[in-house]
Amino acid sequence: MGTEIRIIPIKGIGEISPGANLGTIIYEALRNQDITLQQRDILVVTQKIVSKAEGQTIQLTNIHPSPLAQTIAKQGSKDPRHVEVVLRETKRIVRMDRGIIISETNHGFICANAGVDESNVNGENSLTLLPIDPDQSAQELRTQLQALADKHDIAIIISDTWGRPWRNGQVNMAIGVAGMEPLIDYRGRRDHYGYEMQASMIAIADELAAAAELVMGKTEQIPVALIRGYTYPSGAGTTRSLMRESTTDMFR
Amino acid sequence: MGTEIRIIPIKGIGEISPGANLGTIIYEALRNQDITLQQRDILVVTQKIVSKAEGQTIQLTNIHPSPLAQTIAKQGSKDPRHVEVVLRETKRIVRMDRGIIISETNHGFICANAGVDESNVNGENSLTLLPIDPDQSAQELRTQLQALADKHDIAIIISDTWGRPWRNGQVNMAIGVAGMEPLIDYRGRRDHYGYEMQASMIAIADELAAAAELVMGKTEQIPVALIRGYTYPSGAGTTRSLMRESTTDMFR
């Protein structure tokens, strides 16, 4: 805190194919920009390229929608095959209205359409799913990039762009982390008056993901951002700690 | 997009008293850090100092809680006077459980406790309320800072730190804006495959507020951050466009 933070777009990362070695691709892109990774750098990587590299894509032509998927699709003028894939990625439907499904995903995230996105993979109309275990994906990327850069304290955030209740517009959020704690817990600490801080757990991984989106844009092809200068708490945190327990959640 | 963004903490802003001239105070703090405001700089200012400058604080000793406030307070072991103030700032109660109130504020924001915070104002135990019209507050700050800096294209965001459904931890969000559009609407634009973007309105004001929090911390006294290098859409936007219409909101 108290020092300047830089958010740097990492360019030149082309189309990602299934099986692609993301660590090497990102490392090369950094080198092409003359960036040497430093201890305590943070790399924010969009879910889409992680999913593509991991082969988490599905071709619509192979999907046979269930009757429920067909019914839901009709209400929202959606492709029933798309809805079918959303339902397969869903552990629980939190809300459903006019073809919009707010899902609890198999991971425990709550988001629209279970994070399933339309995409173009090798010229075919297909869908990308979230990584099976985004924290594990982040951890693997971290191990790889740390080895390539010969550093031992780099953090990785995998991000996706989600809507929120009550507010228009989507924001980038963290769906996978490695090498850091995603929350800072100020409870019990005192502010400069000696007051005990209340209800102050800050979801820094989400704030870092949001900050990264500002250099990523949407129509450009910038799926990675480097954040430098932020003093995050190192640790073996996972996004599980970002998932609110249902007992304290008034909106399930 | 595509260029580096810098987030710079603005230090040395002391305690803010009712009636304080925030524009001058921030301008002096910038000068003390040898920062010259540039066209298209963004200043993110925490709600707390805006509310204090505007006298949006209430001493608990003057509050006489209603029977409802007393009932709610008992369920959550809260101060009934605090609950009374929350109720006065609330247009509609969205959820209420164990003393926690999710309010729709008089402005139309939905947040815990109507944005009412415990605070210390001149050594007295008191509460800060949200500014009466945070967009107007942002506009006034903008006019003032632009005049002082002799610039005509500076954006202001007033931020507050709020929780979210489903996710642990709070993040900074925009509650007032001036000189910019708080959303970028990518709908109808095409990505690099020629695909039409779907459901892509990005709440950049919220992402900028989140980014700013990273240099503000919680226990330090850094209530202002400068964001430089981000190409935002200029305009006369307000946070009203960030408020989701109840007809498209599944969580009211």
What is the level-2 CATH architecture name of the largest domain in chain A?
2-Layer Sandwich
Task: Tell me the CATH topology of the largest domain in chain A.
Answer: 60s Ribosomal Protein L30, Chain: A
Helix percentage range of chain A: 25-40%
Distinct helical segment count of chain A: 6
Shape of chain A: globular
Question: What structural class do you assign from the helix and strand content of chain A?
Answer: alpha+beta
Please state the oligomeric state of the protein chains shown. homodimer
Strand order of the largest sheet of chain A: 1-13-2-9-10
What is the mean predicted local confidence, pLDDT of chain A?
92
CATH class placement of the largest domain in chain A: Alpha Beta
The count of strands of chain A amounts to 13
Task: State which percent range the strand residues of chain A make up.
Answer: 25-35%
CATH superfamily of the largest domain in chain A: CofE-like
Low-confidence stretches of chain A: none
- Tell me the number of structural domains of chain A: 2
Series of secondary-structure elements of chain A, N-terminal to C-terminal? EHEHEHHEEEEEHEEEEHE
